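User: Hey, my collaborator sent me this sequence without any context and asked if I could get a structure. I don't really work with proteins. Can you help?
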Amino acid sequence: MKRGQSMKKRYLRAFIVLLAGLITSILNIINHRDVIRGLSVLLVVLLVFYVVGTLAQEIIEKMMVDSADYDHEHQIEVNKKAENKAQAESETQTENEEESAKEELEE
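Assistant: No problem. I've predicted the 3D structure and written it out in structure-token form, which is a compact way to encode the shape of the chain:
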């Protein structure tokens, strides 16, 4: 896995949690909630979105690993097909050379 991709995923959970906290804080201010009630709501939101961020990060990592495995398997399959084609062409060429040699001998 590339380093840049790892760094981007590393901050995904924090971004989700901080964004949820920002939205909750803004809504607390707009709705004129008490400080204690607003902080308790913020705490619950942060905890919930920490779990959501963790799950999202795990799912994305799994999808990327599965995609990399699929790409690797696909590349192996393509290489095998190319090898088989090259081998078949080589065998055909050898057979053609043998036939040409037999025809020359018969003449």
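In plain terms: Residues 100 and 106 are 10 Å apart (CA to CA). You can pass these tokens on to your collaborator as they are.
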